[in-house]
Amino acid sequence: MASSPQPAGCVRLFLILILIFVTLSGGYLMLNLTSNKFVPQQEEPALVAFTHVHLFTGEDTLPGLTTVVVRGDSILCVGNDCQVPAGATTIDGEGGALMPALADAAFYFYLPTQESFDLSPQEQFFDYIKHRPEVRRSFLKNGVTAFLSPGDTPGNIRDVQKQIDQSKLAGPAVWMMGPFLTAPGGHPVGDWFDGDETLIKQACVQINDEAAAVKAVNDLAAAGTNGIAISYDPTSAKLPVLSLEVVRTLVTSAKGQGLLTTIRVSEPQKLAEAAALRPEIVYYAGTEVPDTALLRAVSQAGTTVCLLAANPEDSLRPAAELVQAFFTANIPMVAGSGWQPNTYAGAGLLAQMRTMISPTLSPLYLLKANTRNLYLTLHQDHQGGWITPGHTTDVVLLRSVPWRSDSLPWKVRLVMRKGLIYERE
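Structure (tokenized):
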């Protein structure tokens, strides 16, 4: 199996640099990050008519060029009969594509990505305390306006989520899953974080039994998380793993609290066991193709799967075999960037989507998977995912038409997020 990225050293260096800078600077807090210049083109939600666009609604494509009128983040009308209202700003799509903005099924917001390594130590410190403006900016510039974030301290990520929801910060919507729920010494405690107590305390809750499982879920519900992230994954290091009974208790308790559930596994048998519990998403980090019986069991459960082995930094051949096997078994799939330290936010999702393209898995399948289907999977379809009159969604205008090419060309012209327009520089 391809080795998983090991973030512990990178994260530790990241935190050490922050500490050094705080010591040397005496807490000096004035720095103009370049990302602060990435601001919407208007102060209030706009009334906009997109004309001469190829349209992907999130469910299907429309033939020829068409018109879409948007007020704020609400779709007013779609189609050639759509009349441009008086006072609307008209944007000529020039034959490009208009579609719902993408959503990322897995992004670790507070782990360092390429944005961090592009900055000086001083800038890294302020990037962190300003809630990762470079990351938020990169998401929007790449046409990604929502992501699911496991492995984060609820207080930190909740503050980001709240400020974005209140339009105090520009950035994508955040589906907050809280820390990893894992066995004592399990993944990511025993591999990613390599015994680093600070990281473990921030990003993990280690669970011994069913009573501790119920308490962990209750605590996360009280903290305001959207869901829980369960590690049921011994990984290649053969780390301790939660019992199936504890995992079942976690899922049952979460559903009772109205929380989303995700489970990470890396073995085919555990994939089937996790899918049978019907969480919203199972992350499969393994490269072994499950046998026909296990694939059938996963398909019958109807659970959506995110193939982390399709990460372009891992082995590509097993990923291609996995994608083909899951697609043939009629298992719904979504893409998630996971943790890719050498990749920018948003770009990592697109890289994984391109890796998954095959003769049977088209770009259109993946675009649908990470727009409407992901919103439906996470019960967030009222917030976005498709373009239809009366619906609320973010949109992206592209200079390319990605579903017409096997290479998924993605040239963002502008993003409309919560009714505000951000133009690509």
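The CA atoms of residues 20 and 26 lie 10 Å apart. The first strand starts at residue 47 and ends at 55.
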